[in-house]
Write a structure and sequence with these properties.
The chain is an alpha+beta fold. It is built from three helices and nine strands, in the order H-E-E-E-E-E-E-E-E-E-H-H. The chain is globular, with a radius of gyration of 20 Å.
């Protein structure tokens, strides 16, 4: 992107975040692949928008958030150890069969909500380039821990150093 286009992109992503009631975009990245390569099935903890800039990509997206890990706070790929809060009895061993296919060509936009299992691959031998914008969530646990920590630090006994908690020293 040229400097003026990058500036317009920043303005656009800031406006999109405000419209969604989210903080400014957490990650804006380019995703380039070729030769029918891509990603394994995975889920992201971010809300994700993809704009296809050049070439094309095939996205397969499972319907609904993954039932084995509601409201994920980390990314996860099929075959990796599951997050500690996941329902290990419900973890899939392959991409769900009911996944829908989406072919993104130049100018296409796709929104993949947080926690939806998906996979991506270029459809031919040509270069495929997309711009991805991710909005990270702010989990309730983060807010509550911050508030609790702030409150506890008003008390001298909770500001005292804890010795020996992380080793024998």
């Amino acid at each position: 992107l040229q400097a003026p286009a990058l500036h317009r992109s920043r303005n656009w992503t800031r406006a999109l975040g405000e419209e969604l009631g989210e903080p400014p975009v957490g990650v804006t990245s380019f995703f380039a692949v070729r030769n029918r390569r891509g990603t394994p099935p995975h889920l992201d903890f971010n809300e994700n928008f993809t704009i296809q800039i050049r070439g094309s990509k095939r996205w397969r997206v499972a319907p609904g958030p993954a039932p084995f890990v509601p409201h994920p706070v980390t990314n996860w790929s099929l075959g990796d150890p599951p997050p500690h809060y996941a329902d290990s009895a419900r973890i899939p061993s392959e991409m769900p069969r009911e996944a829908k296919d989406y072919l993104l060509t130049q100018g296409s936009v796709l929104y993949v909500p947080r926690g939806f299992v998906h996979e991506v691959a270029s459809v031919d031998l040509q270069d495929s380039l997309s711009l991805n914008m991710s909005f990270p969530p702010t989990p309730w646990a983060t807010i509550l821990c911050t508030l609790l920590g702030t409150r506890l630090l008003t008390q001298p006994e909770f500001r005292e150093g804890l010795r020996g908690a992380f080793g024998s020293g």
